[in-house]
Design a protein that fits this description.
Layout (H helix, E strand, L loop, with lengths): L12 H15 L4 E5 L15 H6 L7 E5 L3 E5 L6 H5 L6 E4 L5 H8 L5 E4 L6 H13 L3 E4 L4 H5 L12 E2 L2 H4 L3 H13 L5 E4 L2 H8 L1 E2 L12 E5 L4 E5 L6 H8 L3 E4 L3 H10 L3 E4 L6 H10 L2 E4 L5 H5 L3 H28 L7 H13 L6 E2 L4 E4 L23 E6 L1 E3 L2 E2 L2 E6 L5 H18 L9 H13 L10 E3 L8 E6 L12 E4 L2 E4 L3 E4 L2 E9 L8 E6 L17 H18 L5 H10 L4
C-alpha cells in the first residue's frame, strides 16, 4: 500500500512544542519565527524531515505557514483547509487565519511588536516571500532576520534523516526528447536573456531536464537536488551521491557534471568571483541562494524557471503516454465503481476500505509506481472537507442516502492521473441532484470551451461557476491545476482559476474539477484531466481556436443527474463522453463489470 490511515493528529502537542520553540528563540535573542510548510525546494510534497509545520502544530495540509511570537501565534491556511485546521491544531495556541484573505504580511504588520526581531530560515522562503515579509516587519517597526540554523530543528530531537532514494533514468520512449537536446535548447534560450547561467531549484524541473526520476518525497518521483545550467550548454547537478548507482551515473555522465550537494555554495561563490549573471526565479528560489550569489559578487537576474513552460507543454510521446495511463487507470477505476455499486448499499463499506480497494485495483494493473496523492475518500459530511484525508479516527461508513466523494490518482511511468467522482449511495434527494447537475454543467462548460491563442485559465474559470452562481452557490478552490508527465500532480504555470494568468498552450495538461460543498452535509466534485489541443478551424468561423481533449475515462454517476437542468448540447456531450468511455474500457473487463459499465454509461 502506498498510503496509510494512521491517526497522528494530536492538537495538544502544539502547546508544549510552541513553548519549547519560544524558549529556544529567547535563548537566541529572537522575538518570533516563521515556520512555512516547505523545504529547500519550495515544492508541494516535502520529505518527512522537512515537515516542520506538521510537527509543531499538527496540521498536515499541503500548504500553510505558522508565525510564533512570544505572546501569540497564528497558522495560515487557504480555503481548502478551513475545517481541517480546526480538527488538527490547538486553536488557542495557533489562531487560524485565511492565507489569502488575512495574509501573513498583514498579520505581521498588526501584531509584531516594535523593535522585535522576527526570524526566518532563508532556505525555506522564496526571494519574493522574504521581500514581502520583510516589508511587513518594517511597517510594524520590527526587523526580519535570517538564521544560520533552524531553531525548530534544535528542539525536534527525533527529526528524520534527509532522504537518499535512488535515482532512475526516465526512458526516452516516455520522455520523448533526449536530455542532451533539452539542455541544448534551453541553453540557447538562456543566451538570449543575457544570463551566463540559470539556477534550477525545483526538483521537477531538474527531473524533466535530465530525464531522471527519484523517490525522495511522497507520491511524486522526484530526486531532491539543485542544478546550474550554463549558457554554453554545460550543466551541473548537485545531489547527495548516495542516490546514484552505476546505471544513474552512466546516464548522467553523458549530459551533466555530477557534484556533491555540499558543492553548491562554493559553485555559487565561483560564479560571483567571475562576475557572472545568474538567472533565478524569485517565486521558487530559496532566499539563501540569492543571498549567497549577491554576497559573492554575482549579478542576479530575475526571471521564470527556464524549464517550467517547456515542461508544461507536453510533446507527442508524453501526450501518448498519458492517454495510455488514463486508459489503464480508467479500467481500474471502473472496476472499483462497479464493486462499490454492488457493495456500498449493503452498508458494510467504509472510507478506508474504499480507498484500499481502489488502490488494489490500480495495483492489479502491474504498472502502478505510486499514488499521485493520498486518496480523498469522503463519505457524507467528510466529503465537504475539500482535502479530507481519512484516518482510523475519522473513518466513516458509506450510508444509503448519502454521497461519497473519491478523489484519487496514480503514478505510472507513462503518465500521472488525477480523477474525482461523486457517487450516490442509494437514492439521492432533489437537492443533491440539483447541486450535482450544476457542477456537471460547469464541468461541461470547460470541457467544450473553444478559445483563441493567448487565453488564460483565469478567463475560463467563470465557465465552470456560472450555473452555480445563478443559484447563489460557489466553491473556494481553483477549477483546474496543471499536471506533469510522471511528475507532480500539481504542476505550473498553467491552471484554471481566478489567478491563472499563464496563457494556455497546446500540450498543457490541466484538471477540470468544479465542485460544491455543504458543510456538515456532503461534497460534490467532478474531475477529469484534459490536454490543450492545437488551434483548429471552426465551421463558419474566422479564427482558429484551441480547446480541450478529455483524457480521463470513467463513468459519471447518472443517478445524480437532473436531466431537466441540462441543455440539449450538454446532454449530447454527456452521452458522447459515456459512449467513448464505454467503447474504450470494455475490453479487459470481466462480464459483470462490463454489464455494469453498459448501464452506467447508457444514453439519457
Amino acid at each position: 500500500m502506498f498510503q496509510t490511515f494512521d491517526d497522528t493528529a494530536n492538537p495538544s502537542l502544539g502547546i508544549e512544542r510552541a513553548a519549547r520553540l519560544r524558549a529556544e528563540l529567547k535563548r537566541r535573542g529572537l522575538d518570533g519565527f516563521l515556520i512555512p510548510r516547505a523545504d529547500e525546494h519550495q515544492g508541494e510534497y516535502v520529505p518527512a524531515h522537512a515537515e516542520r509545520l506538521r510537527w509543531l502544530t499538527g496540521f498536515n495540509g499541503s500548504a500553510g505557514l505558522a508565525i510564533v511570537l512570544m505572546d501569540k501565534a497564528a497558522i495560515f491556511i487557504d480555503g481548502r483547509y478551513t475545517l481541517q485546521v480546526r480538527a488538527q491544531v490547538d486553536i488557542d495556541t495557533f489562531e487560524p487565519q485565511h492565507l489569502i484573505e488575512e495574509p501573513p504580511s498583514r498579520w505581521i504588520e498588526e501584531n509584531l511588536p516594535k523593535g522585535a526581531r522576527l526570524a526566518y530560515d532563508p532556505w525555506l522562503h522564496t526571494i519574493d516571500a522574504v521581500a514581502r515579509l520583510g516589508k511587513a516587519a518594517e511597517k510594524a517597526g520590527g526587523l526580519l532576520v535570517p538564521v544560520d540554523s533552524n531553531p525548530l530543528d534544535t528542539i525536534w530531537t527525533d527529526q528524520p534523516d534527509a532522504p537518499t532514494a535512488k535515482v532512475a533514468p526516465h526512458p526516452l520512449d516516455y520522455a520523448g526528447e533526449a536530455a542532451s537536446d533539452k539542455i541544448k535548447r534551453l541553453a540557447s534560450d538562456l543566451m538570449s536573456t543575457d544570463a551566463d547561467a540559470a539556477m534550477l531549484t525545483m526538483p521537477d524541473s531538474i527531473a524533466w531536464l535530465f530525464n531522471i526520476r527519484g523517490a525522495d518525497v511522497p507520491h511524486t518521483p522526484l530526486p531532491l537536488s539543485f542544478a546550474l545550467l550554463h549558457e554554453d550548454g554545460h550543466a551541473e547537478l548537485f545531489i547527495d551521491e548516495r542516490k546514484l548507482d552505476d546505471t544513474a551515473r552512466a546516464h548522467l555522465g553523458n549530459i551533466v557534471t555530477v557534484r556533491p550537494r555540499d558543492d553548491l555554495g562554493p559553485a555559487l561563490d565561483e560564479l560571483g568571483r567571475k562576475k557572472k549573471t545568474v538567472l533565478v526565479d524569485p517565486a521558487t528560489c530559496a532566499s539563501w541562494i540569492d543571498d549567497r550569489l549577491r554576497s559573492a559578487g554575482a549579478e542576479v537576474k530575475r526571471g521564470t524557471d527556464p524549464c517550467e513552460l517547456p515542461k508544461a507543454c507536453k510533446n507527442e510521446a508524453e501526450v501518448a503516454g498519458t492517454r495510455a495511463a488514463h486508459l489503464r487507470d480508467g479500467r481500474a477505476l471502473t472496476k472499483f465503481l462497479a464493486w462499490l455499486a454492488r457493495e456500498a448499499p449493503k452498508g458494510k463499506v467504509d472510507e478506508i476500505e474504499a480507498a484500499q480497494r481502489l488502490e488494489g485495483f490500480r495495483s492489479a494493473t502491474g504498472e502502478l509506481k505510486d499514488l499521485s496523492f493520498d486518496t480523498i475518500s469522503g463519505a457524507g459530511a467528510n466529503g465537504a472537507i475539500v482535502h479530507y484525508r481519512v484516518t482510523e479516527g475519522t473513518n466513516m461508513p458509506l450510508k444509503p442516502g448519502e454521497l461519497f466523494l473519491v478523489d484519487s490518482g496514480a503514478q505510472y511511468m507513462d503518465g500521472t492521473t488525477d480523477v474525482t467522482r461523486t457517487v450516490a449511495i442509494g437514492t439521492p434527494d432533489a437537492e443533491q441532484r440539483n447541486r450535482f447537475t450544476r457542477v456537471l454543467k460547469g464541468h461541461i462548460g470547460i470541457a467544450t470551451a473553444r478559445f483563441p491563442e493567448g487565453t488564460s485559465g483565469a478567463q475560463l474559470d467563470a465557465f465552470a461557476r456560472m450555473a452555480l452562481w445563478k443559484s447563489g452557490l460557489d466553491y473556494d478552490h481553483g477549477t483546474g491545476h496543471g499536471v506533469g508527465s510522471y511528475l507532480s500532480v500539481h504542476e505550473g504555470p498553467q491552471r484554471i482559476s481566478k489567478m491563472g494568468h499563464q496563457p494556455l498552450k497546446p500540450g498543457m495538461i490541466v484538471s477540470n474539477e468544479p465542485g460544491y460543498y455543504k458543510p456538515g452535509g456532503y461534497g460534490i466534485r467532478i474531475e477529469n484531466l484534459c490536454v490543450v489541443t492545437p488551434p483548429a478551424p471552426i465551421d463558419g468561423g474566422e479564427r482558429m481556436m484551441m480547446g480541450f481533449e478529455t483524457l480521463t475515462l470513467a463513468p459519471i454517476d447518472l443517478a445524480l443527474v437532473e436531466k431537466s437542468l441540462l441543455t440539449g448540447e450538454e446532454v449530447e456531450w454527456l452521452n458522447a463522453y459515456h459512449a467513448r468511455v464505454r467503447g474504450a474500457l470494455a475490453d479487459g473487463l470481466d462480464a459483470e463489470t462490463k454489464a455494469w459499465l453498459e448501464e452506467a454509461t447508457r444514453a439519457i
